[in-house]
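Design a sequence for this backbone.
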């Protein structure tokens, strides 16, 4: 789709939106190839973008409220600060996308690919994240009020470091390891992670025990506790 065609669709959609459907035409971009489009700040509220290819597209600040993005390709796209409230993103590819600070209230992301997606500071209150793998997603400072999270996924707030648990994988700050690996690290491994990690490690193991099932403490930590 060339830029003239895209501009005409956006103009007609704008008229449709502000006339409440009386004039213009709602944007229908189902399965459209939009990899070269410049869409930052555009109004595509309630548009049909189902199956559209938006990989790598700049959508910063775009209004995609209630848009149909089911199965859309948004891999590597920049959606920072976009309005995706109530959007349908079921099965969408959001791998490596930038969703930092994005408003995703009540959005459906069921089955979406969020591998290595930046969701930091995003608002996902009342969103549906069932069936999503969040192991490698950045969830720092995220709002998860009343969010439907994937099975065996827990986000722990109020600790010294941000902690997320997805199945057996435990992210602490920027460190991601399995629960068993956290239990097996040597004292030097923990020291190498940072100045305060040695003090925090017993607390982390308590959290892992609570959410993942009780496990063994490393011998060096047992010996350290015996010396106290």
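Sequence:
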């Amino acid at each position: 789709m060339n830029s003239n065609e895209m501009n005409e669709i956006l103009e007609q959609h704008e008229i449709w939106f502000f006339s409440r459907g009386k004039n213009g035409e709602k944007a229908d971009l189902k399965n459209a190839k939009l990899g070269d489009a410049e869409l930052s700040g555009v109004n595509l509220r309630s548009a049909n973008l189902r199956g559209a290819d938006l990989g790598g597209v700049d959508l910063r600040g775009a209004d995609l409220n209630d848009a149909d993005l089911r199965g859309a390709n948004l891999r590597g796209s920049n959606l920072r600060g976009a309005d995706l409230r109530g959007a349908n993103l079921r099965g969408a590819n959001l791998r490596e996308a930038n969703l930092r600070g994005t408003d995703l209230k009540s959005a459906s992301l069921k089955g979406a690919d969020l591998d290595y997606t930046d969701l930091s500071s995003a608002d996902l209150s009342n969103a549906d994240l069932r069936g999503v793998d969040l192991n490698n997603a950045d969830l720092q400072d995220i709002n998860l009020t009343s969010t439907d999270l994937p099975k065996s996924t827990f986000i722990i707030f109020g600790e010294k470091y941000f902690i997320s648990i997805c199945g057996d994988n435990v992210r602490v700050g920027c460190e991601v390891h399995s629960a068993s690996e956290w239990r097996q690290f040597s004292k030097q491994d923990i020291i190498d992670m940072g100045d305060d990690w040695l003090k925090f490690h017993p607390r982390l193991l308590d959290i892992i025990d609570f959410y993942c099932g009780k496990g063994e403490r490393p011998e060096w930590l047992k010996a350290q506790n015996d010396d106290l």
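The helical segments are 3-18, 179-184, 187-193, 197-212, 219-227.
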